[in-house]
Predict the 3D structure of the following.
Amino acid sequence: MTDWTVDSLARSIDHHLLNPMLDDRQMVKGLAVAVDCNCAGVCVKPYFVGMTARLLDGVGIRTGTVVGFPHGGSTTQVKIEEARRAVGDGAEEVEMVVNIGKARSCEWGYVRDEIGGVSGCLSSHGVKLRVIFETGCLSDAMIGQLCRICNEILPAGIVSSTGFEYPGVDGGDRETGNRHLSMMRNLAAAEIGVKAAGGILTLDDLLSARACGAVRFGTPAPEQILEEAAERLEREE
């Protein structure tokens, strides 16, 4: 017996439209897919936020975007300015990539100030922040420390991955990704939602991440996942 419906899954999905190869026509088509699927939100490239907010106005799908994407290497002030511009363009949710190099250097004061600075900018406008960890680049101890910092700042959510691959980095498989999700859920404060992103391409990918405590799922393939969900429910009837 399943504890989900197609609609409940749809309302936990963000349609990710972040591939640099997507042109404007494909971006608009992707927004239409999100509407057809009744997704919770979309996450679009920063330059497309204004267009997205206009096209999705009144349809109940949240406009999201990214800051410091995908590598997290921008300065703190640049990230704050990106966040401010995203809000001005109509973003309702913002996902910021932590400075991966600073996290790997264990410069936690820098990381804390960066997350706090972007969080403060967004919260003053009533906009939600999610912090992207890029867990495949980090040790378990680093992931744990990021969770503790987020417990101090209390962003709306934390995200496992950008979905981009890094040559020579181990940990891109689903099993490792789920272990990281479980760790994030266990260490983060209850009010911080966990989002799974990267490699969520099938229904089983989503359901296994959900079993690890994720409540939001970023994917470029909502249609395929929801079609698979409908077919599975039909077989089980």
